[in-house]
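Appendix B. Raw example, untouched.
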Amino acid sequence: MLNDIAPIFAARIIESLRLGIPPTNYIKEFTVGREDQIEKLERTLGSRGSAPTGALLLKANYGSGKSHLLKLVRKIALEEGFAVSHVEVNAQDGVRFNRMDTILGEISRQLEVDDSGDRGVGTLFNNFINATTSKLDKKAKRLYDNISSKGQWTFSETLDSPAVQVALRAWSVSNGEATVRNLVEDWFNNPEDYRNLRQRLYEQLVKRFLGKFKEVRAERTFYQEAVFSFHTGQHRQAWDAISDFDLIAKASGLRGLVLLFDEFEDVIHNLRRRDYKEQAFLNLFRFFKGERFPGMSYFAVTPDFVEKCTTELIEGGAYEFDYQQFSQLDDFQLDEISSEQFFDLAKSIQSVHAKAYEWEPDVHITGRQLADLVDDLLRVPSPDRVRRAIQGIVEYFDEILESLDG
């Protein structure tokens, strides 16, 4: 695939590698060696026809593989027919793992149903609305018909979250009206901003469309049952909404929803209260047990993640916490990349760099020189030596190019 790449895309790959960032759209081409382990990782998404459930810790040091592994899983999941959402946990920016309403917001913002680059809960809703039911298998069509009441949108209990049912129904019957769809997306992206806007949501998403469907609930019922709230009842409706996203994906012909969580150790560093940390870890365990989300989740963490978590809780005085649950978390960790494997990666970078900037690599660097460079770069003792080595390779090729221009 890299041999046929256009110079403009080759340049974008090099720009990404120059920053030490794996190139998203070519992640497989820059995952070298360790084929058996990559195949094992692919198998965690299950074979066709069976949707996986549970979670997996993806272990790698900072700067040396966490982002790469998550981007690789994203690419595989999209190719295998899943919707995907990549969430970066960051309490300082309001994405707090003890607050599932904030996690729902970030999941909604980052949802993807294909590799087009479009993101947001609207992409999932559009995928459902635009599904060609004649092409769905029997199970998906049954889900589709149950959710939409065969297009009539009468009240249905197929979806666990009444908020999702209200939003998806309004999305459908509004016939693409921008104000309605913008309101739905903003509500799901920022649920905490709508705690005191329940009447507005009712009027804009229910009342104004009553002629297009039959609503059996009175207006007061929507408020009494907290239909528009994701923070009440220990964030139960936030969990239900995330689960419903998985169901909607399946009803529109996809295999489900895969969640990718990066920087989970933010829980240790930025959640100040011990009870917040405990709640965040309990939410983590729920993903691994498949209690409230039926799909597959991946958490990118450092190799000593479990030790750091237990130490943090013990030092904080959480003596009665069930620490055994940490030892039951399934994990996946790539072996260290060898010099021979990194040499193959360096050759790929060389080829793309030459394509991007139109120079002849075989004329200006020998295989022996490149091998010696790889050995030197990998000798540097650093937890993120792979990322730094990649940047060093790109820098070396940049210097060659600069000398040619001179």
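End of appendix B.
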